[in-house]
Amino acid sequence: MRIILDGMGGDNAPEEIVKGAVQAAAEIDHEIIIVGKPEAIKKELERNKYSGNRILIEPAEEVITMEDSPVKAIRRKKDSSLVVGLSMLRDGRGDMFVSAGNTGALVVGARLILGRIRGIDRPALASIYPNINGGEPGLLVDAGASSESKAKNLLEYALMGSIFVDKVWGRENPEVGLVNLGTEEGKGTSVTKDAFQMLKESHLNFVGNVEGRDVPKGACDVIVCDGFTGNVILKLTEGVAMSVFKRVKQALKSGIKSMIGGALVKSNLMALKDEFDYEEYGGAPVLGVTMPVIKMHGSSTAKAVASAIKRGIPYAEENVVDIIKEEMLKVEEYIEIEEE
Amino acid sequence: MRIILDGMGGDNAPEEIVKGAVQAAAEIDHEIIIVGKPEAIKKELERNKYSGNRILIEPAEEVITMEDSPVKAIRRKKDSSLVVGLSMLRDGRGDMFVSAGNTGALVVGARLILGRIRGIDRPALASIYPNINGGEPGLLVDAGASSESKAKNLLEYALMGSIFVDKVWGRENPEVGLVNLGTEEGKGTSVTKDAFQMLKESHLNFVGNVEGRDVPKGACDVIVCDGFTGNVILKLTEGVAMSVFKRVKQALKSGIKSMIGGALVKSNLMALKDEFDYEEYGGAPVLGVTMPVIKMHGSSTAKAVASAIKRGIPYAEENVVDIIKEEMLKVEEYIEIEEE
What are phi and psi of A35, to 5 degrees? Predict the structure, then answer.
């Protein structure tokens, strides 16, 4: 198997990307093709004293930045690492594409260059959602690929997310929850009400509506919502958690007695903060396109890059895309009936 | 001025409600009419050794519970404390209604019994949103009165919220932010895009889009969003903050060294947790109906009840409803132009 890695995407490219590739290459048997400016990548490989033959370089001279408009960037920067990488994937020159680059451009590029799976109306961006109570994280779909969703889209997100969590994370029959403003059936917008019915009638392990207060407690394995809500949930969780940590730190510092106490508990707090570092869990998939694409956080470090590569492998090896294709054929008729 | 208090609404009624009324009565010069079962209320007044003449009782034998369906409850329980209290307000027998009862029933009841302000399409429920960085809290509108909103509704929420924060909280020219998935203009759903334009062209102090990660940091005074998003924001904030606190507590307990440290810092942490107790700030207004209505949290204690009564007074005394009415006449034409 060959992993195509965007060497120029993200805040720490190419340094941390290449370093992460070297770390991953030491632990896996697959080839990694780093796409980007050859000189820069070579320099980083040398700096990391890489002398193996499983990391290859594919030249691409342009870079899509975080500021680029997604659609324009995909159309105009044909020699960017992102466009070249996705095109290689489409042409069978690799089995999976991993990037820390511009999220919008990656989603748009995956849709335009790889195409959607038949029956999938809207590809989704998933995101790993930490379980603050300490258990396994969940997969939130959609994290913002589309800002508006129809009920049918929410069912698609649930279906794709379930298959991914089952096959890639190894959690059989994962629990699917629908983000809503109350747990009772019949709550919510017209879209969530309709989605509730579709999910209830589906073969998925649907546990019902989940409220905002239960999402961070690991209420379900697959957290289904529209991309607007998903974006708010992810950013708000980060904002609240980091603000609370900051305040706790301040509280620990105030008063001499507390300073002594604070020093003693500091190491425990740091260990806790690491748990929220969901980079550990690897990247998050773009779901609904015809080949495996993994999105890493824009500020990914080498450790996060290595983790995303290693943990992403089952997305390709377990034929997740093919399984989604088959499932979509099964539910296609059902969805069409439900829709009108 | 006369404050009408729902004596039977909320988890701790009538005990904490009456106790809160007694506490408030000691500090204010207004009359408080407690609506509910006379025997139960009398008993609580005696228990609290109340011997003044500024707390009156208005009989209402029925109780709307948290489980009641809002519309049905308002239509059928005519002798409930909530319906009787709102009817008294409508009939001029009081100047403000304060309740810890069923939120849905309060919003529906206010709309049906008091009526909407001319030009207001959808009354909103506001909620006090804590500033986790330690500053003043914000007012989030809509907290869930409607699950779906048009752009026009978001403008109404912004307008009403601004007037409330200015007149009741005494913050002149409050900053208004629109919850969205990016800070840049042009981001979001068709509704938030349109609302952005309307807000930008309005006379309000619109600071632009605010992302989920900035909301808990006190990004603006008036946080505008649809009721679905508002509900998710409020519950998620509670869920994340409480989960983080729980984990911090666990971290402090693990290891003997940390136990010593934990004991030392415990008091500081408790002080911090109190800050998130936004009950302190009083109740939250139902906005867009023709008279002042204040919603308290369902689990309000006496302290929260007293605080809601005292802090709610300017909602009536500062003629907030009249100011909203005047502003709506001014913007009416403008909104209609924008709408189609």
Answer: -100, 130
